[in-house]
Design brief:
Order of helices and strands: HHHHHHHEEEEEHEEEH
Largest sheet: 5 strands, antiparallel
Structural class: alpha+beta
Oligomer: single chain
Number of domains: 2
Number of helices: 9
Helix content: 40-55%
Number of strands: 8
Distance between the termini: 15 Å
């Protein structure tokens, strides 16, 4: 996994250079689309970024690699191979190209030296998400200066969970409510080939990391819950699955790591 993320958040310097903004913005938006499994939109965005003529050679190479990954997700393997050829001309030493080329050419996922197969592993993850179904918890916030507290009730629902071993994917629908008001309702698709790291974090710890007001802190999350957080290569943002049982969260994280290894992902273990 390359150490430098070329498609990170745009810096102030990049934003100041108007001539470069559109191409990099499309590339970043393409990464977001790819990471949520929206392959058609990812292809369109990476195509715009490449055609803009505004990317550096390194960013252009990465755009070809990521568009190839999106093509593989759509089973357009011939187009993926063409993009990988273009990427290799720009960077013959990119190790991601060989792994994606093998995937586009129909090479099977790596066989485990021991442990479950990819199909068994994805089935385990799917079953645990299905068994979880709904996660309900209350986040209590408090002010350090006044001692005042407030709370919000959250409901997370997971439905329509399916696996696709050929594409190294799990797909599901997630709906999030806060105080019975819908705040998120979306389909999630992500390839295990893109997972860079997996980590189990108590929900209270995660909630505390999102606080922007230094006076406000997370006093409690009741009942306790745990985030299985997965981070994608080339993207600073994380996806997550919430579980009400810590042991199940850890088992799912280990299964996800195993699936990522079987699918050829190259990242850091949690």
């Amino acid at each position: 996994m390359r150490a430098t993320i070329l498609f990170g958040a745009l810096t102030a310097a990049v934003l100041a250079v108007a001539a470069l903004a559109d191409g990099l913005s499309d590339a970043n938006a393409g990464m977001d689309a790819l990471n949520r499994g929206d392959y058609d939109n990812a292809v369109q965005l990476f195509t715009k970024a490449i055609a803009s003529g505004e990317l550096s050679p390194a960013d252009k190479e990465l755009a070809y690699v990521k568009r190839a990954q999106a093509y593989i997700g759509e089973n357009h393997n011939d187009l993926a191979l063409a993009d990988l050829d273009s990427a290799q001309k720009l960077d013959p030493h990119d190790s991601d190209i060989a792994a994606l080329r093998a995937q586009a050419q129909g090479a099977p996922a790596a066989a485990p030296s021991n442990g479950p197969t990819l199909e068994e592993t994805l089935d385990f993850i799917r079953n645990k998400i299905v068994e979880q179904g709904e996660v309900k918890y209350t986040v209590v916030l408090a002010s350090q200066s006044t001692g005042e507290t407030g709370s919000a009730l959250f409901d997370t629902y997971y439905t329509n969970v399916t696996t696709d071993p050929a594409a190294c994917q799990i797909r599901y629908h997630v709906k999030l409510l806060r105080n019975n008001k819908l705040i998120s309702d979306m389909d999630i698709f992500y390839p295990y080939t893109a997972i860079e790291s997996i980590q189990v974090v108590p929900l209270g710890q995660y909630a505390a990391s999102t606080m922007t007001n230094p006076d406000v802190f997370v006093q409690a999350v009741t009942p306790p819950a745990w985030n299985v957080m997965y981070r994608f290569a080339g993207n600073p943002q994380s996806g997550m699955l919430i579980f009400s049982d810590e042991d199940i969260a850890n088992r799912v994280a280990k299964a996800m790591l195993h699936a990522a290894e079987l699918c050829g992902a190259k990242g850091e273990p949690f």
